[in-house]
Design a protein that fits this description.
InterPro entries: Calcineurin-like_PHP, Metallo-depent_PP-like. The protein has helices at about 30-35, 40-45, 45-50, 70-80, 105-115, 150-160, 160-165, 190-210, 245-250, 295-300, 320-335, 345-355, 375-385, and strands at about 15, 20-25, 55-60, 90, 120, 125-130, 130-135, 165-170, 185, 220-225, 255-260, 270, 275-280, 300, 340, 370. By secondary structure, it is α/β, with parallel strands linked by helices. Strand 12 and strand 13 form a beta hairpin. Helix 11 packs antiparallel against helix 13. The chain is globular, with a radius of gyration of 22 Å.
Length: about 400
């Protein structure tokens, strides 16, 4: 992207160039917090060395790249270019990205991102091979617990959003009820958030109802806010400010995975056949429990796992027992920090991995015939382990 060109509202569909690599999705880097400590967040969380970033076709950031709009956001975008070229970075804004900017003036955010050579992906469909990624902040309806007023009041009291994000109110009555000013800037309200949430939800529903450009291709959704309480963790009075219950949308759509951030809890579930996956990095001083997912294993989407091309489907090994044995072997290797030796795998698994990991981030250990254990686990997990229980059907 030529930063000297006139910056106009971005396209609603963006084709991600296919360089034979993967798509990475992560959220809540909050880079300013790490910069204050003089630390590197990707190194801090073990993502710098476990993944070969040069094989990434696209990095989608699902919100809260920095902590405020302005120079810190520019610095954060520059930081990411250590790992991924600027034109392979796609920014879905989170609530923190609107701090010190108006909710109704996204052009300022878009201009800053585009001027850095990256892409602004608000209400945008990204296409990579036969995959589509539907991206939007989403926000929330504050109705998760059925008491919208209580949730709005709780959020006003405890969230900085309502001090840090503003909105222009046209014709708003200010102080004197007889004096109507033509233009005034006010702090954002929960009602403003709900209005934008409805707009984003309507956009998602329309896109999900539109036939896939690749017919049998996969659909992913990437939002900042959460779509279902099953991946929220412990529920409290603030949870409705982070998650909505979009069960109806999930039941009516064919979505492979719905990625989100905001909560900083790396939890997952399956709802109506869709995996709900949090991919938050979070603040440097946060603790992550044993029940949370390994970020390196869930934030990379290898299109090559399912397709050699847009029309040729890869088949999983038919011998499930052998596959499960190989999966257990990979888990033991991961626990002890050693690579998975190719000659220890069954022939069917070897053949599968040769194809499945051809375009993965870290396909082969440089020093010999072995794979990184994390890559093998990711590649085999869908076939060798059951999906988490579907909270909207099936056995609990």
């Amino acid at each position: 992207m030529n930063s000297s060109e006139a910056i106009l509202p971005g396209p609603t569909v963006i084709e991600i160039p296919d360089n034979g690599g993967t798509v990475a999705v992560m959220a809540d880097l909050h880079l300013k917090s790490y910069f204050w400590q003089g630390s590197n967040p990707l190194q801090f969380h073990g993502l710098q060395d476990r993944l070969l970033w040069e094989n990434v076709d696209a990095l989608i950031v699902a919100g809260d790249l920095s902590d405020t709009f302005g120079p810190s956001l520019q610095d954060a975008l520059a930081y990411l270019t250590r790992y991924v070229p600027a034109d392979r970075i796609y920014i879905v804004p989170g609530n923190h990205d609107y701090y010190s900017v108006r909710l109704d003036d996204e052009n300022r955010l878009r201009d800053l991102v585009h001027a850095s050579g990256s892409w602004f992906a608000q209400k945008t469909e990204l296409r990579h091979r036969s995959d589509r990624f539907l991206c939007a902040t989403l926000w929330t309806d504050f109705d998760l617990l059925g008491d919208q007023e209580a949730a709005k009041n709780f959020a006003r009291r405890f969230m900085r959003d309502f001090d840090m994000i503003s909105i222009e109110a046209l014709g708003h009555v200010w102080l004197d009820p007889d004096e109507v000013l033509p233009r005034r800037i006010f702090p954002v309200t929960p009602e403003d958030i709900i209005a934008v949430h409805r707009e984003h939800r309507a956009w998602l529903e329309e896109k999900l109802a539109t036939p896939h450009f690749a017919n049998n291709g996969r659909t992913f959704v990437v939002t900042h806010h959460g779509p279902h309480p099953s991946a929220a963790g412990p529920i409290d009075g603030l949870t409705p400010a982070f998650h909505s219950d979009l069960t109806e949308v999930l039941e009516q759509s064919d979505i492979e995975t719905w990625f989100f951030g905001h909560s900083h809890r790396r939890l997952s579930s399956v709802v109506a056949g869709t995996r709900i996956q949090n991919i938050s990095i979070g603040y440097p001083d946060e603790d992550h429990g044993d029940d949370e997912d390994d970020l390196a294993e869930v934030c990379f989407i290898a299109a090559a796992l399912n397709t050699q091309s847009s029309n040729e489907v890869r088949e999983l090994p038919a011998d499930r027992q052998a596959l499960e044995q190989d999966f257990e072997y990979a888990l033991r290797c991961s626990e002890t920090g050693i690579p998975v030796l190719v000659d220890k795998l069954t022939p069917s698994t070897r053949a599968f991995l040769r194809q499945a990991l051809r375009a993965c981030a870290c396909p082969v250990v440089p020093e010999g015939d072995a794979y990184y254990a994390t890559d093998v686990i990711v590649a085999l997990s869908r076939a060798a382990t059951p999906e988490p229980p579907d909270v909207n059907g099936g056995d609990q």
